[in-house]
Amino acid sequence: MDTLSNKTVSLNKANANKEWFVVDAENEVLGRLSSKVAFVLRGKHKTGFTPHADCGDNVIVINADKVRLTGTKMEDKIYIRHTGYPGGQRQVKAADLIQKKPAQLIEKAVRGMLPKNKLGNKIFGNLHVYAGNEHQHAGQNPQPLALSTIK
């Protein structure tokens, strides 16, 4: 009788089986890369996806400085922030941001695709972005992730 059982599996921290993946961002379009990385971070690629739990995998993104933006977004796209003081609105173009802090460009794109709550903040901690080809997570033995296999 157990073989015909249709029990719903709800993943939690103990049985999520988190894995480590490495993604090469060289010549990848920023939005397409970010949506697929957010998909894996959230855990939606797993059969036991649970919306209220952190059941996604850890993702390492390398070569963040070689990511592409289509059209004229490199010059037109503006990131706005506020210091909290009167007249403290600051803005930076995508071209300037990728020169100064290339990892932040991918982090901002992925964070915008995650839930805006405590769970989203926790899931965002599973993302590790590096500008160059080297990363410090070799001990976790990350597997290469082909973005064409997702969705």
Please provide the ordered H/E string of secondary-structure elements: EHEHEEHHHEE
Beta strand count = 6
Distance N to C terminus? 35 Å
Biggest β-sheet description: 4 strands, parallel
Unreliable stretches (pLDDT < 50, length at least 5) are none
Derived structural class: alpha/beta
How many whole angstroms does the radius of gyration measure? Answer: 18 Å
Please indicate the percent range of residues in DSSP E strands (runs of 2 or more): 15-25%
**Helix content range of the residues, please?**
25-40%
Principal-axes geometry comes out as: globular
Strand order of the largest sheet: 5-2-1-6
Average pLDDT level: 94
Assembly level: single chain
The helix count comes to 5
Write structural notes for this entry.
- There is one protein chain.
- This protein is an alpha/beta fold.
- The chain has helices at residues 30-42, 73-76, 94-100, 102-111, 118-124; strands at residues 20-24, 58-62, 78-82, 89-93, 127-129, 143-144.
- A four-stranded parallel β-sheet has the order 5-2-1-6, with helices on one face.
- α1 crosses α4 and α3 packs across α4 (102-111).
- The radius of gyration is 18 Å and the shape is globular.
